[in-house]
Structure formats: structure tokens, C-alpha cells
Amino acid sequence: MQGTVIDIRPNSVNVDLSKMKNADELGYENNVTVINHKNYEIIQKAEAVSPSTGKHLNLSWRKI
Predict the structure, then answer these.
(1) What's the whole-model pTM score?
(2) Which InterPro entries is this protein grouped with (predicted)?
């Protein structure tokens, strides 16, 4: 799964899933989810620059 980091906390990361192609198929109530470090492994990080908000971090992760 992939998303854009909204907030980084000590044990989790809040991620916006709205740019995922199949985000609506996941059945979440909204496009934001919490990725808990003990349940998921980050497999790719990429910094990007958004003209409207500046830098942001994109993540790819999988359940462990």
C-alpha cells in the first residue's frame, strides 16, 4: 500500500491514502489511516515536492 505521510508519531505514522488507485476498495471510512510500526514494515520512502504544500514524504508499506 502507498500513501502520503500526514503526521509521524513515536509508534505510528498517519497516512493519506487518497492518491492510491484502489483506496475506495479498502473499505475505510475516510482516506486517512494509521500505520503502526509493530504491525507494518515500511518498504520504500520517497520525498517529493508539492507546489502547494512544499515537501512531503510518500511511503510504501506491507503488513508483517
Answers:
(1) 0.68
(2) DUF2187 (IPR018690)
